[in-house]
Design a protein that fits this description.
This protein is an all-alpha fold. The chain has helices spanning 2-18, 24-33, 39-63, 65-70, 74-80, 85-93, 102-117, 124-149, 154-174, 189-193, 196-216, 228-245; strands at residues 277-279, 286-288. The protein folds into three domains: 2-151 and 221-245, no CATH class; 154-216; 256-321, no CATH class. A hairpin with a 6-residue loop joins β1 and β2. α1 (2-18) runs parallel beside α11 (196-216), α2 runs antiparallel to α8 and α7 (102-117) runs antiparallel to α8 (124-149).
Length: 321
Amino acid sequence: MLGFFVTLVVQRWWETFHCFGWIDNSALYVATYINGTDERTRMIRRNIVRYAVLLEAMVFRDISPVVRRRFPDDHAFKTAGFLTEQELSAMESVTSPHAKYWLPIHWAFHLIKEAKASGLIRTERAVELVQARLLEFRTSLAKQRAAHGVPVPLAYTQVVFIAVRSYLALTMIGQQYVIGDRHKEILTPIDIYIPLLSILQLLFYLGWVKVAEGLLNPYGDDDDDFECNWFIDRNLQVGFAIVDAAIGKEPPLEKDVFWNEITPLPLYANGVLNVPIHVQNDSIPKPIRLVEKIIRSSFNSDRNNSTVAEHNLESQGNRFD
């Protein structure tokens, strides 16, 4: 029973972690398909990212007490920069008996529609792709909210914790040494004075229980809990960098350093030159030695300017051991 419970808790914790909203994919699609460097285009891209991160902050506020202390109400979003004054008024003007998680994505979709109408997005397929990435972001956060709203049944948790502690308490009494001659042939001093198996049971069972208790609610302020505020700040910073700071700073198209090589041999650092490489595309992996050992003082696009410290070219027939 304890094993099933710990497996359930760890599985929920792992699936919850994978449902964290990462803005990278959505921001990359926004930056790719909404073209332009003028101020209005930049505003559209940045606002779409900001609305997505606002959704994440709204969800985390309802499931994490740490984020709740940071954003006690909607006005705190405006103070932190996630909302403008007009956006806060628009949010308050919408009447809904439920949480308005859908509202920031609704605003983002409206901006996508405006971008398509003004020619910033060229095709309908691009609109579908950008919207699909935002929907994936929203769906992952919805799964997190649902998992927090429907926790592990309390009765199951209490039964497991009470059963384990009761078993350990009875074990401390039931496995004590009883003075008598019944098992004198098999008893040893370590069995009498040091109950080794009982100590191991106590450590393992209580350890499992502590693991389950620590992972049961990972949204608190313990050291092992998720850093929800960090996720919010990180997504805002990375999202703005993708859709704004990186636009127009792409490197020029040029030939790579392996342009004239049919089978390129990337360089290795000095400390790994003698490490064997195991070929994985054969039925039996065979270790091979480096055919060419090269140490560069600096790695640049011109291979001819590199410093050759060691050159050991072996024959093709001696490559395999």
